[in-house]
């Protein structure tokens, strides 16, 4: 594994460790913690093991996309308050997961799943942007950037928007060694940024919105 | 930039590297731009909310000061009434009933006692008037409808203005505290109309709708609109209006000042959420 590969593989260790260090025991953060754990597990061992056992290089990527989407959308589902949009997340997730699992079984993982990965990127970006707009509309007096959720959401926005194009092009160009190199560099950089942003989120202490000060009724 | 160099030198199709680079960069710029926009927008919204909150607090302070000032003025008025009217009357009565009375003849004694009795009756009436101005007995005993009817009859009785009122549905009385507050608001509004509007009539109507109690006062003189009311509330002028506002706030109600669509009348609408008295009267 090249040195950058180790950095990428071990980058999720930072938020992973901070999760324990700062005791962020909350269901939403637990999904992120699980996501970091799976990222480490896939990068260090599962990719190799799964690919060897199935006989396809792309099987583990496809499986990881399903896990990644599930955990990130669960986190976003947890933090989004709007009931209608939560229903939309449920239906979109059911549709996407059905499609991904069907594609995983039927395609026998012969190629990179650009469509599924692209759709997952778009869906997560939509959920994340909706979360930010919901925060603007809510009468909360906290600044957005003072909350851990904001940094986690920004991490996903940056990661999924940064890697969207390379994932879209992967299906047709993955055999090209130069493309592969570019893919790994871009993917690695955004992975590191994402993990740094998640680490920031775990460092920030969650604040509670201050109660509105009122003068007693006359 | 490393991957750009790799792409530029080694890609079989140089177009893909450019698309990848600009695509990724474009998406990233869009995403970061959106996040920055949201953060700055939220900051602006929070600042605006804080400013609004501050203004609201200032408004509350003005209302509180107005209420305190009104209470002080009311106390001064009562003190002045007692000191200037009741005091001299009782002192005069005392003069009639002094020790020298015994030394005078029977007719003078009877006259003095009669005069003293007259003065004491006047004092009783005066104290009753003061007491009634603090808490109208009609309101306490018979409720808001009777108290307002009484008030309007008295105004109409002067002959200077035609005052009428009609309660459409007041089978269930409000709580006594609410009735008193509403009565005071009506008194203040009517007082303002009599003082400033130069109108020829005042008409009050009452109704219920969707668990809300409504009172509406019409008059054909010079009036104020909601905008004027809010402006005067924020200024140091208009103590009476501030008292109206603070009473309406205590009632958790709303007050609307508007000009009729025909532009002939001014109307004031008081809207109070229903809190019916549970106790049987």
Outline:
The complex is a heterodimer of chains A (218) and B (281). Chain A has helices spanning 3-10, 13-21, 27-54, 59-79, 83-106, 114-137, 148-173, 177-203. Chain A has 218 residues and is an all-alpha fold.
Structural overview:
The complex is a heterodimer of chains A (218) and B (281). Chain A is mostly helical and 218 residues long. Chain A has a single domain (3-211), classed as Rhopdopsin 7-helix transmembrane proteins, CATH 1.20.1070. Chain A is 77% helix and 0% strand. In chain A, helix 1 (3-10) packs parallel to helix 8, helix 6 packs antiparallel against helix 7 (148-173) and helix 7 (148-173) packs antiparallel against helix 8 (177-203). The longest helix of chain A has 28 residues, at 27-54. Chain A is globular. The relative contact order of chain A is 0.13. The model of chain A is unreliable at 211-218 (pLDDT under 50). With 281 residues, chain B is α+β, with helices and mostly antiparallel strands. Chain B has three domains: 2-56; 70-134; 137-273, 2-Layer Sandwich (Heat Shock Protein 90), CATH 3.30.565.10. Chain B has eight helices and five strands, in the order H-H-H-H-H-E-H-E-E-H-H-E-E. A five-stranded mixed sheet of chain B has the order 1-2-3-5-4. The longest helix of chain B has 83 residues, at 14-96. Chain B is elongated, with a radius of gyration of 34 Å. Residues 1-11 of chain B have low confidence and may be disordered. The A-B interface holds A 125, 129, 132-133, 135-136, 139, 141, 143-145, 154, 157-158, 161-166, 168-169, 173, 176, 178-179, 181-182, 185-186, 212-215, 217-218 and B 2-3, 6-7, 10-12, 16-17, 19-20, 23-24, 27-28, 30-32, 34-35, 38-39, 41-43, 45-46, 49-50, 53, 57, 60-61, 63-64, 67, 246, 249-250.
